Amino acid sequence: MTRRPSPRRSPIAVTMPFRPPLEEYVAYLEKVWASGIMTHHGPLVQELESGIAKALKVRDVACLVNGTLAIQLALRALRLKGEVITTPFSYAATPAAIAYEGLKPVFADIDPETLNIDPARIEGKITERTCAIVPVHVFSCPCDTDRIQEIADRHGIKVVYDAAHAFAVDWKGRSVMSYGDVSAFSLHATKLINCGEGGGCVGRDPEVMARIRRLRFFGHDEDKRVVDEGTNAKMHELTAALGLVNLKYLGKVLENRRRKYGLYQELLKGTPSLRFQRFAPKSYNYSYMPVIFETHELMRRAERAMSRQEVFARRYFHPSLNLTKPYFQPGLPVSESIAERVLCLPLYDALPEADIERICSIIRKI
Ligand SMILES: Cc1ncc(COP(=O)(O)O)c(C=O)c1O
Fold first, then answer.
1. Greatest CA separation found in the chain?
2. Most buried pick, 20, 121, 240, 269, via CB within 10 A?
3. Does the beta carbon of 84 lie inside 6 Å of ligand 1?
């Protein structure tokens, strides 16, 4: 009997941007063509800012060109100088944004279960030069905001959350973005709600938010005088148009991701060599599918077995940032160990459930 070759499968990437029906985006582009306004805080950027504020139930949102500049402008608006305590288990954007503002990132180790900065490790890193803490809600799991705020208040320092992953997450009855002095979010193509590239800030002090708005537009005030050392971090209308269409799908995207995450959990549950990030189920947006293997060797075997079948999981975050050349501060054992054992599995809106079943069976076999 001759065996038929199995049909060729397409490679599975770790992520894929959500794309709404094209005609809905085109309808927004028609508005841009009609108005002739491409940028400078045009009507669609304003509409996106109020749409996000409504969706997150926060008062004030300033949209920006990306999430990295959102962290930078938040730090600059708070007029910080000196050292900033942050997590080594993040994307390079976090310490890069701190360093670009002339500040020194100082890493404190993480909690092995939530993967977020461990408040118990923060205090030991505080010196007379410390001006702020920049925690990250890793993979959208909220940080221990109460303990972090308590430490910040006791030392008179600021808190800027890197909320790049944490769009649409509620925490203790309100948006996770309403904690700290400012939260910086990302609308990058890989994020829950995307604009291609984009981001923004949510803040509680109107003065600070007004300063962020000046800084994004070369330091101009409302009368166009140059009153601040600003930069160009303006979101433009074509980007805002995509954000506005995608925002309409927020509920659907969230629910779909939650279901897919649940399927992974169900199929991998009981696999002895693997565990999940610990989080409160109602305070998570399921934008990533991180799994932590018992050993580096098992993680590599799983990664290789998947890539032989053109399934491309990602070692996110690896390496622990304290072991990278620009930010070298060795000696953070929890983050260093997790970074050697973590893999983010494919998870995105259009990922078929049959692919999740196939991925889980590859992992279970190793
Ligand atoms: C934790 C974290 N912080 C900041 C950023 C930067 O966001 P953006 O790509 O919008 O500049 C990212 C981006 O992926 C991120 O993962």
1. 82
2. 240
3. no
pLDDT higher than 80, residue 8: no
Domains assigned to the chain: 22-247 (3.40.640.10), 250-365 (3.90.1150.10)
Query: C-alpha 136: how far from its chain's center?
Result: 8
d(CA 198, CA 218): 18
Tell me: the pLDDT tens digits for 303-319? 999 999 999 999 999 99
Amino acid, res. 164? A
Where does residue 189 rank: exposed (0-12), middle (13-18), buried (19+ CB within 10 A)?
Answer: middle
Alpha carbon distance 15, 268 (integer Å): 19
Q: Is 136 in the pocket of ligand 1 (CB under 6 A)?
A: yes
Ligand 1 near 90 CB (within 6 A)? yes
Contact 125, 82 (CB under 8 A): no
Reading phi first (left if > 0) and then psi (alpha if -120 to 50, else beta), residue 277 is in beta
Q: How far apart are CA 360 and CA 187, in angstroms?
A: 29
Helix/strand number for the chain, H first, E second: 12, 12
pTM here is: 0.96
User: Distance from the CA of 72 to the center of ligand 1, in angstroms?
Assistant: 12
Contact residues for 133 (Cβ-Cβ < 8 A; gap 6+): 84, 85, 86, 117, 122, 148, 151, 152, 157, 158, 159, 160
